[in-house]
Design goal:
Blueprint (H helix, E strand, L loop, with lengths): L10 E6 L4 H4 L2 H9 L3 E8 L14 H18 L4 E7 L9 H15 L3 E5 L8 H17 L4 E6 L2 H6 L15 E4 L4 H10 L4 H7 L6 H5 L1 E8 L14
Parallel strand pairs: 1-2, 1-4, 2-3, 4-5
Antiparallel strand pairs: 5-7, 6-7
Helix pairs in contact: 3-7, 4-5
This protein binds zinc ion.
Length: about 240
């Protein structure tokens, strides 16, 4: 068995494809655990250089990647994360890469950090972005290879949340796959700070704030599906602790 963290302290590794996935994604959960004494590391596989919003029209890909990596550092600080590793796989082309390239990064993260739980995208990718789906696939493969009990939690939006975000086509976690619902209402200020770090993506954020009923009620819970090991029962847990 791999060594566990000190009693009651969890090590959580989040793996995402792009700068901002963590902020618009499970930032409430990452903040909640980081701020309550757990060790939370983020690994982002690309620098987001293929983005199309905001300054993308006037910056080279190199410049945009640098800007977005800086925004990601700001976001990690806003969430009080323990560590951040930014990789330089090609944004928009993860699905075209030999799987070994992504797997090597994720295996190295797992071996170095020895997390109790890994958080990544739901296999449907939330927005359906091929990079998201590829990152989810790589994480599942790397975790299954290790077969040491590390949990893999797939983050996504619930069906009810997706219905409220009517201006975008998003793919929810099917309700019957949700295993964890984390109340992050006390941590939304950290999530919002993290999102505001991603100034190049501010169009997305402005749009979300017009959602009927208010952004706080939309985002007060974050949803996960534990995909490995498959939990014996499909009850819904309200925390990530074992
Ligand atoms: Zn993304």
């Amino acid at each position: 068995m791999r060594p566990r963290a000190a009693l009651g302290i969890m090590k959580i590794l989040a793996v995402f494809a792009h700068p901002d996935d963590e902020a618009f994604g499970p930032a409430g959960t990452l903040s909640r655990y980081a701020l309550t004494g757990h060790s939370v590391r983020l690994a982002t596989l690309t620098q987001g250089e293929a983005g199309t919003l905001g300054p993308a029209s006037r910056l080279s890909r190199l410049e945009l990647g640098r800007l977005r990596a800086d925004e990601l550092r700001c976001s990690a600080r806003a969430m009080h994360l323990t560590a951040l590793n930014i990789y330089q796989l090609p944004d928009g082309r993860l699905s075209e890469l030999p799987a070994e390239e992504g797997l090597a990064i994720i295996r190295a993260e797992l071996n170095d950090f020895l997390p109790d739980a890994v958080i990544t995208f739901h296999s449907l990718g939330i927005s359906g972005h091929p990079d998201h789906r590829t990152a989810a696939r790589w994480c599942l493969q790397a975790i299954q290879e290790q077969a040491n009990g590390t949990r893999l939690l797939a983050y996504g939006l619930s069906e009810a949340q997706v219905k409220r975000i009517a201006h975008r086509t998003l793919v929810p976690i099917p309700d019957d796959e949700i295993t964890h619902v984390i109340d992050v209402s006390a941590y939304l200020e950290y999530k919002f700070r993290a999102i505001r770090c991603h100034q190049s993506q501010s169009e997305s954020w402005e749009r979300m704030q017009t959602i009927e009923g208010g952004i706080e009620s939309l985002l007060q819970n974050e949803h996960f599906s534990q995909v490995s090991p498959v939990p014996p029962k499909r009850s819904r847990e309200d925390s990530l602790e074992m």
